[in-house]
Write a structure and sequence with these properties.
The chain contains 4 helices and 10 strands, in the order αββαββββαββαββ. The chain is an alpha+beta fold. The strands form 2 sheets. Strands 3, 4, 5, 6, 8, 9 and 10 form a 7-stranded antiparallel beta sheet that branches. A 3-stranded antiparallel beta sheet has the order 1-2-7. A hairpin with a 4-residue loop joins β4 and β5. It is flat, with a radius of gyration of 20 Å. The N and C termini lie far apart (70 Å).
């Protein structure tokens, strides 16, 4: 009986962790579009559910929320692994000032934009969740007969802590979405 005691304790701890309440809104990527604008590969994406209930509570108590987008351009390879061509990182921080009751979005990596301040959570959420007109590479740098696709990873977390336990507690989320396969030559 003593041999089973540590296993029973581990099983009970795992059941308690898994039975915890999950956040109602989960992070997901919507409207992933890939364009060849001005002869460049351009990506547009929107992340929905960037601030779940647990993240909103933490944000309003003074913890900053972080969202990170990793946009990857891949080349499809029929007989081997697909090849990663380009990785583009975007990182944004959202803070709430309790005194002024103002949300402030700061663009940390990948975007040379001025900070955005608003009193409405909806506006701040819109700004941190949109990836607009990210130009990855000129189309001339790619193989014209090759097939490409874009994969977008989104992560959101309080205080930048994104671990298994924080995702289980609902203070961090992850999502991945892949675009359709595209050829530079178009249908023939």
């Amino acid at each position: 009986m003593r041999a089973f005691r540590p296993q029973l304790l581990l099983l009970a701890a795992a059941l308690l962790l898994l039975s915890g309440a999950r956040a109602a809104a989960e992070l997901r990527i919507s409207d992933l579009d890939v364009y060849l604008n001005d002869h460049e590969v351009t990506v547009h994406a929107v992340a929905l559910g960037t601030l779940g209930p647990a993240l909103q509570e933490g944000l309003e108590s003074g913890l900053p929320a972080h969202i990170r987008f990793r946009v990857e351009l891949w080349q499809y390879n029929r007989l081997w692994r697909d090849r990663l061509l380009i990785t583009y990182l975007l990182e944004r921080h959202l803070t709430y000032n309790v005194v002024t009751k103002e949300y402030k979005v700061m663009f940390a990596k990948g975007e040379p934009r001025a900070p955005y301040a608003t009193r409405e959570l909806r506006d701040a959420q819109r700004v941190i969740s949109e990836v607009r007109a990210v130009k990855l590479t000129p189309a001339s740098a790619l193989d014209p007969s090759g097939v490409i696709y874009v994969r977008v990873h989104a992560e959101t977390a309080l205080s930048g802590e994104n671990s298994f336990l924080s995702r289980l507690a609902g203070t961090a989320e992850q999502a991945v979405r892949q675009s359709d396969y595209r050829s530079l030559l178009g249908p023939q």
